[in-house]
Here is the input.
Amino acid sequence: MKNILFITTIIAAAFAVGCKPSTQETTAQQLDKAQAETKAAAQQMRDYTFAQKAEFVTAMQAQLADLNRNLDELSAKIEKSSEAVKADAMPKLAALRDQATQLTKRLDDVTNATESTWGTIKADFEKAYAGLKDGFAQSRQWLSDKIAP
Here is the structure.
């Protein structure tokens, strides 16, 4: 349970960075911070043993739900932007949604993992999850740069 709360906190902090760059941090600093938080969340994922598989799956389902909600928010911001930004952003958003769908399928693999396949399947999931999180952070930052106030 402690791991679930920690992962949720890390992910919430990553999303709290928001779409607008702060006056104190540059875009590069925000991206570096989001990547560091993703790495920290990935490290916490590694702490789950096969005996804790059900907890891991539950935690990752919650993270995927949060990520999908954030993709919906990003989509809404794209819809409110200029046609040029929409044209550039929609393929990026579609790619992120495809990654999220693939990650959901990988979570099914995690659910069905045996003790002998646990390490490999969990590592594959973690790698895909980190890639999706990084892609989301980069896309959100790209959009923020395009719709700067």
